[in-house]
Amino acid sequence: MNTSRPKVGIIGAGAMGTLFGFHLAQECEVNVLDQSNELLEQIAKSGLSVNDSSPRTVGTTSSPAALFTSSVLFLFVKAVDTLTALRPFAGQLDPATPIVSLQNGVGNEDAIKTALGSVPVVLGITTESSLTVAPGRVRSSKNGYTILGSGGAAPSTSQRIVTLMQQSGLRASVVYDIRPHLWGKLIANAAINAISALLDCEVGAIPRDANAAALAQTIAREAAAVAAALRIKLPFSDPWQYITEIIAVGADSRSSMAFDLASRHPSEINHINGAIVAAGRRAGVPTPFNEAVLRLIKSKEALNASPALV
Question: Which of 34, 213, 288, 294 would you label with 86, given CA atoms 20 to 30 Å apart?
């Protein structure tokens, strides 16, 4: 990686891609890939900005080929879109180019390697919150933190990326074993995203409403039981306390799944609650509440796809 001015590719110019692209542009040559020409035109014209900061100029493209020479690729598409987003890069990247995924759910590492083969993968979680207020402009809480770990990349690669993020004004660290943190985030997503989507509410409403909070706690307990059966030591002792801390960071935002349902985009439910249900079946742990919200979201998606059924 060229430490003077690394070439960073951002795949997906949504809220999180905008947030990370803005910060990384402080130290890197950033190119943003997206399929929305309208969005790209606005970013090319006005740059990326976070809160009241001055905009930063980045490159924009709808062609994956423009990112083939990147020093590192950050993946900010939905888990359901990973294969489609990465297939054009197969055989085109330097084999040493790391792919960084901060996506929701589990199974992203497998999807990346299915698309690209044996590549250095860096996985992570982030509590950064980002809400789009205009194309290329987001509002962020400034309180987020990112944890990275190897999904096949050398530990030194994960550390170099963390250092780059820190130099760009992002709070980040490396852990030896990322899996407990991925499952911690999975549990939080499972307890928050589907409920926010089904109730069409801000995530901050969940702990304030007794019924929503009780459902979220039950979903989290089921998921934590699955993790225990898989011998995954979670990075917290009290799932609900962890979840409420995450909610507090972005209490006035809706979950990404709520936006998916509103826009009729396929949600990540199979990668979140669905992944917990599947893991529970393998481990012999019942997950009826996770299965219930899984079925409700899938039913909602089916109804959205067939308005005549409503």
Answer: 294
Fold exhibited by the domain 179-309: N-(1-d-carboxylethyl)-l-norvaline Dehydrogenase; domain 2 (1.10.1040)
Burial class of residue 159 (count of CB atoms within 10 Å of its CB; 0-12, 13-18, 19+): middle
- Whose tokens are 């998921």? That residue is 223
205-244 pLDDT per residue, tens: 999 999 999 999 999 999 999 999 999 999 999 999 999 9
Cite the residue boundaries of each domain of the chain with CATH code 3.40.50.720: 7-174
Q: C-alpha angle with apex 263: 24 to 100, nearest 5 degrees?
A: 30
- How many CB atoms neighbour CB 34 within 10 A? 20
Supply the CATH classification number for the domain 7-174. 3.40.50.720
Contacts of 177 (CB under 8 A, 6+ apart): 149
Q: In sequence order, what are the beta bridge partners of 234?
A: none
CB 91 within 8 A of CB 29: no
Structure tokens that stand for 289 in this block:
């509440």
pTM for this entry: 0.92
